[in-house]
Structure formats: C-alpha cells, structure tokens
C-alpha cells in the first residue's frame, strides 16, 4: 500500500466567517498520486493549497502531511516536505537574481555551498533556463519568472509538489517542458489549474471543486491516441455528487459509489461544472 502523504478530514474554511470556501472536505493523497484540482474561479483551489502549507491556519477539521498535523508548531517541518509554486511569481521571487532565488532554500537548509551550487545548476538544467542563472528578476518576463519559480522548488528536492496555475504566462515550448518535468516527478503532486489539457496529460486523479464547496473526483487512466499529445480520453470510475458533501458521505459508507462513468473525455469536463 502506498504511503499516505496528505490527509484531509472534514475540513471547513471560511473567509471572515461569512463566506464559506471549503465545506466538509475529506480526501487522502498517496505517495505517487498525480492530482489535478479543477473548477471555476473562487471555488477554493488556491485556498486548499494554502491550507496545506500553513498559510491559512484558522480552518476546522484535520489536515495532516506525512502524519504531521498542519498547525502552527509544525509548519517548519511540514514546509520541508513541500515545494509550493505560487500563482503569482512575484510573491515567490524576492532575491536579486535567479541564482540567488533558487539557492535560497538549500542555503536555508544549511547545506554546504558546493551542494547548493549543484542543486541550483541541476534545477536550472531540468527546465532549460541555465541562460537565466545570473539574470536580474526585475528584468524578466512573466514566463521567465514562472520557470524560475519552478526551479526554486526543484532545488528543494521536495517529497510533495503543489502548483497553483503553473502554466500561466508560459509559451508553448516552456509549457511542454513543464509537462515533461511533472510527468518525470516520481512523488506526490497536486496541480490547481484551468489548463485542462495540461491536467489531462499530467494527472491520474482529478478533484472537481464546485461552487457549492464540495468535490467530484475520479480516478483516471490516460489513454492517448498519440504519445506526447493531449489527444485521448480518461477512463475509470467516478464518485458523483448528487448533494453537497456526498463524496464525504460515500467515503463514510465504505465508498459506496454512485453510477460509474466509464469514459470521461476532455470535452466532458466543462459540462461537469454545472451540477
């Protein structure tokens, strides 16, 4: 059995106590899972990721990362396990050059400078931005900043990767490079995105978050017509919500499933937003 890396149990979160963003969310994520979070703006995709890294702590319920509760006292240890790519790269890059930003986390871990240099060079090479090593952040384009942000987490060698809209501002070449990086990553990754083609190519489990703050989710097996393209279909079983919280109710009832979706095509996904 795969090791459970993340566990949400009956998690609720509201902004200013009056606007419910997440309601009774329960799910587990295992070591090699590739999870896509999809849904309309404002349904809580980014909020869910922020809860995982302890940026928002005033939630109800239980969140655990590698058996550690996500509470104030444990945040430093939790963040050692997670690499988090912000939606806004300017919130993540705060040093003067790309090298300094990518080196920040390894240096913060107290690694020898030789190891820091090795990690930075490897991360930059992975995403083909060695030429940006000494470039000043303020002179970079949005796409360059996004790739530099991704390099900062690769240099951490995390057990878990969280990404919030990682393909924003990327040109086709860098987007394709990102897809290869994600598919080569052998541990748990959770990606929140409106880029359904990228989700199709990188994720085997999808959580569809609705405006009523609950989840539709299904496990999928990618079956492409042509390798390296986004053509194909998802096949697998689904748990379908008829009422708010039905996914969690189904888990309580030993995963008693609603009718099975035998084929989920890319064209079906927007239609599924309308519960």
What does this molecule look like?
Residues 220-275 have low confidence and may be disordered. It is globular, with a radius of gyration of 19 Å. Helix content is 31%, strand content 27%. The strands form three sheets. The protein has a seven-stranded mixed beta sheet with strand order 6-7-8-3-9-10-13, with helices on both faces. It has a four-stranded antiparallel beta sheet with strand order 2-1-4-5. The chain has helices at 45-52, 75-81, 98-108, 113-126, 142-154, 172-184, 196-202, 246-252, 269-272, and strands at 4-15, 19-30, 34-38, 60-65, 68-69, 82-85, 160-164, 188-192, 205-209, 215-219, 221-224, 232-235, 238-239, 263-265. It is α/β, with parallel strands linked by helices and 275 residues long. The chain has a single domain (4-272), classed as Rossmann fold, CATH 3.40.50.
């Amino acid at each position: 059995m795969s090791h459970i890396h993340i566990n949400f149990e009956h998690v609720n979160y509201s902004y200013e106590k009056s606007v419910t963003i997440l309601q009774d969310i329960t799910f587990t994520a295992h070591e090699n899972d590739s999870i896509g979070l999809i849904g309309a703006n404002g349904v809580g995709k980014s909020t869910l990721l922020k809860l995982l890294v302890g940026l928002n702590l005033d939630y109800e319920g239980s969140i655990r990362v590698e058996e550690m509760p996500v509470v104030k006292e444990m945040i430093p240890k939790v963040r050692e396990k997670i690499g988090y790519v912000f939606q806004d790269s300017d919130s993540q890059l705060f040093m003067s050059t790309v090298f300094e930003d990518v080196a920040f986390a390894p240096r913060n871990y107290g690694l020898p400078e030789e190891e820091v240099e090795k990690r930075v060079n490897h991360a930059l090479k992975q995403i083909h931005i060695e030429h940006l090593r000494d470039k000043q952040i303020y002179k970079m384009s949005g796409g360059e900043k996004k790739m530099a942000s991704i390099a900062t987490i690769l240099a951490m060698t995390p057990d878990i990767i969280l990404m919030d809209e990682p393909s924003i501002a990327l040109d086709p070449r860098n987007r394709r490079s990102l897809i290869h990086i994600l598919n080569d990553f052998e541990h748990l990754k959770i990606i929140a995105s409106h880029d359904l083609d990228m989700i199709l190519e990188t994720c085997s489990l999808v959580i569809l978050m609705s405006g009523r703050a609950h989840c539709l989710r299904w496990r999928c097996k990618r079956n492409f017509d042509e390798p390296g393209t986004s053509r194909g279909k998802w096949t697998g079983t689904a748990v379908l919500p008829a009422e708010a919280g039905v996914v969690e109710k189904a888990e309580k009832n030993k995963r008693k499933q609603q009718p099975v979706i035998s084929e989920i095509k890319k064209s079906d996904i927007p239609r599924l937003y309308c519960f």
